[in-house]
Amino acid sequence: MSSAARSSSTSSRLGLKKNSLADSGVAGAESGRTTGPGHRDAGLVGGFMIERFDPLKGERLQVLDEKGAARADLEPAIDGQTLRKMYVNMSLARAADAKALKLQRQGRLGTFASSRGHEACQGGVASAMQGSDWIFPYFRDLGIYVTLGFPLQDYFHYWMGNEAGNRTPEGMNIYSFAIPVASQILHAVGAGMAANYRKLRIAVVATFGDGATSEGDFHEAMNFAGVFRTPNVFVCYNNQFAISVPRSRQTASATIAQKAVAYGFRGVQVDGNDILAVSVAAKEAAETARSGGGPTLIEAYTYRMGDHTTSDDASRYRTQDAVLEWEKRDPIVRFQLYLKSKHLWDEAYEREVQDRASETVEKAVEAAEARPPASVEDLFAYTYASMTPNLKEQLSDLNAFLRGGAR
Amino acid sequence: MIMTMVQAINQALAQEMERDARYLILGEDVGRDGGVFRVTEGLVDKFGPERVIDTPLAESGGVGVAVGMTALGLRPIVEIQFMGFIYPAFNQIVSHVARLRNRTRGRFPVPLTIRTPYGAGVKALEHHSESTEALFCQIPGLVVVAPSSPGDAKGLLISSLRSDDPVVFLEPTKLYRAEKQEVPEGLYEVPLGQAKIVREGRDLSIVAWGAMIPVALAGAARVEAEGVSAEVVDLRTLAPMDRETVIASVKKTGRAIVLHEAPKTCGLGAEIAALICERALLSLSAPVIRVAAPDITVPLPKSEDYYYPNTERLLRAIRGIMEF
Fold first, then answer.
1. B71: which chain A residues are within 8 Å (Cβ-Cβ)?
2. What is the pLDDT of residue A340?
């Protein structure tokens, strides 16, 4: 299909979609959600897992309960080796995160935004991605980097204060993570528009927190995605806090997922501490995107276990009781219990996983610290495609100063 | 062919898009309507709605999605309808467009062009007369261009589109249809970062750009009868600036006036005056003078003439600097 045809069919499809949502609301359709013209889109995929959980009715997709027991009708068929790989990545992300916090306290790494508690969100999303898919992450996304195989030493190198660590290796489709909140969601939509134009069958993922949904760029991105029917998977880690401001101050909507309805596409709320729930939803959303079915908004309901960053003190605005309550829902423990029930986990295996994670982390830190800091030339070399006369002069002046001091 | 600046820009877009499928145009009303100034007229018929894209009304959205398009190898061209409406996109421009190349050490450059009409002098509505180029010239990583003639507009735009750096391309609204000029039919580049001496002179250098160039030329022509030979330097690229041409001109003439329609304080004239003081102080026989708009909000049309620098104000400055 040409892009022209795609764009001209957008409005009618959205029209149908809108009607179908209205219909299901009026009818209060329970199991009848696989009917209605809007579902032709999902029909490209099969499965309809997302369709079964309506955020407008407060429904949330959960595969594993807090004891790690899977709901039989929702449990995905994933082989043991892959399940263990997911567990290894979650454990590695947690270990790398803990190490970064330690390094920061020792003055060996700068301000750091911990991902603790987000391992299921990040691991689940990354596990849904395929070779040529793209992701536009944000600053709290360590589990994405770990799962996609981004060099951990680069990751540490960046947070130790070096731009060179922020250079994604060639061929790896991880865009540079954004710090200005929500701004990256538009980039993901643009990449999705480019994928449509180039007729690439890929999914383009954007991740962000609940605070991001208050920014204008979030709404502009959702709006463009709906209008241009982009192959996007939007994943909001609703971790209940934007630094100190709670989720209740970000929006009066009952869920974040339901915002998708207003933009003309699907939204689903999933248990963000359940890696299987995130994975199932993200895989379905990615497949929908790849097959021309348009965008999906996934709200992964979770909790930020740590401070916002190492510069924050969360005890100023939340109680330890709340944190302890969420400790019981630790995403790694939950997945571990699931693996145990499948005879894929025991104490010996855990020691092996922890030892390997710790070895990987230590090696990465060592390599990151062994790297030289940027040269003075490097600071000037990447501002423009080639250095301007003005920059050459300023570089030469700085070098002269560094050589000769104030003389 | 004889054409206006609007036609020259339209031709540059059409010819480059013909040549390279990586270019897409994004903006409000750029498609069927051909843009509110008709700069993109006919392009949607030629290239289809998948390449000339009417977007939802959202400036940050337009620039933001363009950034993402560059990740997948495209070279988007974003039209912001008026410079006064570019500010919602400022975060995207400053925080991403300008700095991604550096913060990824060259892995993710952002080769896009943002076109926008700018400037006063056409008795427009509020917010339709902004000339805030200095905001962008301050940002490392951006190229800022402002043509003053149809021929330059075409060549500078082609260079901008082909540049691997992001370009903010400022089109002087007042000059869109002010004059027609012979413009070469084929593709050609006017290099970025090169100023042009549009009138040679011995006694005084007037540094200007965009819609102030006709004002500068008119002023120079008027004082010629009084025996003053004024040189006019058209910066063309405002950032990174061609400092050598400015300095060489001032060293030759010994006097400099910077003429711009943006407010005086912290305008680009301040940077140029500082540059001249750093590099050519001993050649000066008078202080550098800035002829600029006052530091007030652009007035509504009835009062615009008090604001907008014109030939008479320039003449007063020329006489002042010559008598110093």
1. 134, 175, 187, 190-191, 194
2. 98
